[in-house]
Amino acid sequence: MPFDAILIVGLYIACELIANITAGKPVALPGGITVPAAVFIYALTFTLIDLVNDRLGKQGARYVVYAAFLSNLLLAAYTQFAMWLPPAPFYGEKGHVSALYCTSGKQECLAAALIKPEAVIEIVETTIGNRTKPAHRQGLL
User: Fold this and answer.
1) What is the pTM of this model?
2) Angle, nearest 10°, between helix axes 116-137 and 39-84?
3) Quick one: how many helices (H) and strands (E) in the chain?
4) Of 70, 43, 5, which Cα lies nearest the Cα of 125?
5) Which of 26, 50, 124, 135 has the highest CB neighbour number within 10 Å of its CB?
6) CA-to-CA distance for 40 and 95, rounded, in angstroms?
């Protein structure tokens, strides 16, 4: 696999993980709009998966989406495990994992609400993106 493809795959999976970690923090935008902090980096995943699709094809892009899905499940499971472990005595009142992913206290909901739809969206996007590529390259779209 070429270096650029490996780099794009790594960035895609990293962005997916970062989006799920930061999804629990709402941020205020001008005009009174509130969005999850994840929205900014999650938008980048669509460009990255398109680049993966260009380099590895539809099936390769699907494998990358599956790998990101499994990475997110591992993140959710390990975060639960880390929260279950007793904190060190010097850690004080911060007995929880301090990642933004854990601030809501509903990690299972985040995993179910974010990870599954992400995988479905990305699979659909790779399929649609793959079908429109020839038309786009011919200047039809």
Assistant:
1) 0.71
2) 150
3) 4, 2
4) 43
5) 50
6) 29
Strands (E) in 42-139, as ranges, are none
pLDDT in tens, 81-134: 888 888 888 776 655 554 444 444 544 445 445 555 666 666 666 666 655 565
Long-range contacts of 106-112 (CB under 8 A, 24+ apart): 107/76, 107/79, 107/80, 107/83, 108/76, 108/80, 110/20, 110/23, 110/24, 110/76, 111/72, 111/73, 111/76
How far does Cα 77 stand from its chain's mean position? 15
Q: Helix, strand or coil for residue 31?
A: coil
Q: Three-state SS for 36? A: strand
Structure tokens at 140: 């039809």
